[in-house]
Amino acid sequence: MSSQKHSTKTESHLPPPKTPEGKPFEVGATTAIVTTSPQKTITLRLKRHIKASPEKIYKAFTDGDALAAWLPPHGFIGKMHSYEPKVGGKFRMSFYTATKSWQNTFGGTYEELVPYSKIVHTDKFETDDPSMQGEMRVTILLTAKDDGTLLEIEQAGIPAGPSASGAPYGWAQSLDKLAQLVEPELPF
Questions:
Q1: Arch. (CATH architecture) of 26-182
Q2: Contact indicator for 114, 136 with CB cutoff of 8 Å
Q3: In this structure, what is the dihedral angle of CA atoms 36, 37, 40, 46, given to the nearest 10 degrees?
Q4: Which of 19, 73, 168, 180 lies in disulfide reach of 32, CB 3.0 to 4.6 Å?
Q5: Contact between 66 and 182 (Cβ < 8 Å)
Q6: Is residue 4 scored above 70 in pLDDT?
Q7: How far apart, in whole angstroms, are the C-alpha atoms of residue 97 and residue 86?
Q8: Could you read off the pLDDT of 163-188 as tens digits, one per residue?
Q9: Closest to 157 (Cα-Cα) out of 112, 114, 113, 106
Q10: Spatial distance between the Cα atoms of 104 and 107, rounded to a whole number of angstroms
Q11: How buried is residue 4: exposed, middle or buried, by Cβ count under 10 Å (0-12/13-18/19+)?
């Protein structure tokens, strides 16, 4: 069985290439798989090895300031408007450009938080754009490995529009930033 791989740098701001349906492809250090549901939404599955403990990565996902620092892809700034990291708790944040010529606000509810191993939350864009409407579900799994953590993310229900085609590349850039945040061993 051969798997076709597509590799691209995560720094590019060019339109992303067409993603292969249902086949793993590499986006920098992240492996992605994109599938389309019968409801015409996209499910994105990501895998990334990070040289940090599950505890450290979990904290970077559940601290609002840390999340706002690493989650926005290259070229964007994150602002956390509200953040309640508990089951039933809600969050709301925005990504915007440095010139503030573009902004997108989204939020959701935490459905499951298992310290150091699993996070499940919903996500929904605040927009009138029909190509970005609908609720998504994000599942994050952290598995300890000898030399760090296997991070697996599934984002299901992505509206099949422009945001879906860029999602693997945006996530890969975000995960690059996450690794830069959590991999260094600081003396304090």
A1: 2-Layer Sandwich (3.30)
A2: no
A3: -40
A4: 168
A5: no
A6: no
A7: 29
A8: 788 899 999 999 999 999 999 999 88
A9: 106
A10: 10
A11: exposed
